[in-house]
Amino acid sequence: MMNTPAAHAGLDQFTVQGNVLCINGIPLPQLAARIGQTPFYAIDRSVLTRRVQALRAALPKTLGLHYAMKANPMPAVVQHFASLVDGIDVASAAEMQVALDTGTPAKEISFAGPGKRNEELIQAVAAGITINCESLREITGAAHAAKSLGLKARLALRVNPDFELKSSGMKMGGGAKQFGIDVDVVPEALKLIHTCGAVFVGYHIYAGSQNLRAEALADAHTKTVALALRLCEIAREIGLSAPQVLNIGGGFGIPYFPGDTPLDLAAVGAHLSTLMPQLHAALPTTEIVIELGRYLVGESGIYVSKIVDRKVSCGQVFLVTDGGLHHHLAASGNFGQVLRKNYPVVLGNRVSADVLEKVNVVGPLCTPLDILGDKVQIPAADVGDLVCVLQSGAYGLTASPTKFLSHPAPVEVLV
Ligand SMILES: *Cc1c(COP(=O)(O)O)cnc(C)c1O
Question: Is the pTM of this model over 0.90?
Fold first, then answer.
């Protein structure tokens, strides 16, 4: 009997033909030959498209969908999403340029992130995108930029929510945080926007990331909507017009590790549907949006490296590849993991075998942290075989220390 290595999260996004992993129909060895080098990241555009379709089907019809491009800022990926989603959220002026290059209208681009430099504020105002202000200084900085440019700044407030998104991979709201403006400072921030004559775009409330629990997300959505309605009332009292956009965050997670169950998207969508009538009644002219990064792109991508050596140490097999943590820090377990767990690993050119071998897949770096797979079960593999790390479409290359040890950079392709 053929054994496929465990039930790997993400493997069902792709087809396996003749025991070879295919990326958007192209057998991996052929794709590797086309690219002409390893390591590489390959993103399957059909997976991206299907994911947007699944979200559209599950979420309320009137809820806008934004791509948070820091999850994967590869220009071709951002371009692909530009025609599928309702807006792009950027986290730097350089990301803004990539988003603008796609032809996305400026008013559908918003810029979040603490510590925006004055130069970035000038760029953002000149571009006409929305700035999600994370401090009073950003408001005055943007107003100053607008004055010198003879333009109006489009300003939203990123609010540090006064609650937490429970069981999140990363909490990004609730309590003391570098993100957003505390709820009790919002009135002062609104007055500043009002007096400087900027366009008040609305609110951005983001509570956390990588959440697999529908109930936790639903709870956060309920609290976010209550907070937003309260804050909109305050804005109205100050004399600001109704918000154009209300961004209620995201944080939808994807499964990585054995035991992770995929997010119940239908449940999240059903709960959001119960909140929409209340929002539309109170804010009839306001566009309600969510912003997703990882959930949109994470499952579409694989990281492929080639085995350059096979060694045995103290009875354990080590497959040494030409890729490692310098390209994929997250898979090595050093990007936000507390206890290291393996990302799903498959042998791309021989997915299944009668007998599997327990191996350590490591990179070429001079550090014991450079692990892509710790005691993973894959078909017996040797020099030249292609090791694939699944679930690698988000926070892969972009979140990795590529300069460390000065090995060659990987290639990224959208297939
Ligand atoms: C990082 C980030 C996102 C995207 O988070 P994912 O977990 O990738 O969906 C969305 N919004 C803000 C403000 C972020 O900082």
Answer: yes
